[in-house]
Amino acid sequence: MQNIQTLRMLSQVFSPPVFHKIVRENDFLPFEKKVAKYIGSHNEYSNLDIIKFLYKSLQKNYRCEYIYKNNITLDIIKNYSLSETLTINELKVGASKADLVLLNGAVRIYEIKTELDGLGKLSKQLCDYQKFADKVYVVTDEKYAKKIISEYATTNIGVISLDAKNKLNILKEAESNSLLFDFETIFKILRKQEYLDLVISNFGSLPDVPNTKIFKECYSLLSQLEIADFQKQVLNKLKERKLQQPSLLKSNNTPKELKHICNSLDLNQQEYQNLYHFLATKNVCTNPI
User: Fold this and answer.
1) Which of 133, 208, 209, 242 is the most buried (most CB within 10 A)?
2) What's the pLDDT score for residue 40?
3) The domain containing residue 55 runs over which residues?
C-alpha cells in the first residue's frame, strides 16, 4: 500500500463518476475492479470497511485533492446551516474552474493546492476568482503555505493549511474583493433561466427580441446594475440550486469519508438508500485491512 502509483490509482475510487455508477446505475464494477486489482480479493469485508481503510491510507500516504475537498466539506457541514448554505464543486469562473465555492451570505472560493500539485496556474486562477468571490482562500499543505503567504502577503488572498493531523488551520484571513468584481465574469456563471429570472425581477419583463438576441439583450440590461448589487443577486440566485437532501448529507449514516462526493452528486433520497445498500454489501476484497 506504500507504492505511489498504487495510491494514485486507488485515489480514483473517491470520484463522482465511480459513485454515479453505484447510486444511479447500480453498477459496482468500476469500484470492484479498482479495489481488487490493487489490493487483492477476499469476501470478509463490507464496502464501507474498504472505503474507510482506503481513505485512511490516502490521508496518511497520499493526500490527493479529494482528501482536501472532503475536509473542507466536513468543516462546512459542521459550521454552517445547510438550509442557508450551498457548496458547489468545480464551478467555472472566468477561464478557471474553482475547486469549491461556498455560498451563504457571501461567496467564498477555495482553491486547493496539495503537496502533489504545482503552483504554476495559481496566479491566474486567483485573479479570476477575485472577479466574483467576496473572499478567496488557497487551501494547501504546510510545505507550500509559507511560500504562498509570502507571495500574497499584500493581497486579499487568504491561506488555509491542512496539517499533519488533517486539520484545517487559517494562517492568513482573506479580505473583501468587492473592488475587483467583474460583470462579464459574474454574468457568465449564470444559467440561461437564472439570468432571465434576474432580468424579470429587475426590469419587470424580458426584452422583446428574437431568441438569438436574448443573451446579448439580457447582458446589456443587467450590466446597468451596480456591480456589488448584481454580485449579491447572482449569489442568491445560485443558492437556489439547493441540495435535495441536506439532512441525509449530515446524517451519521452517510460516512464522513464520502461527504464531499454525496454533496457533489446532490443525491436524492433513493440514491442515498442505494449508497447505504452498497456500503453494507460484502465485497470481494481485501486481504490487508
Assistant:
1) 133
2) 65
3) 4-67+245-280
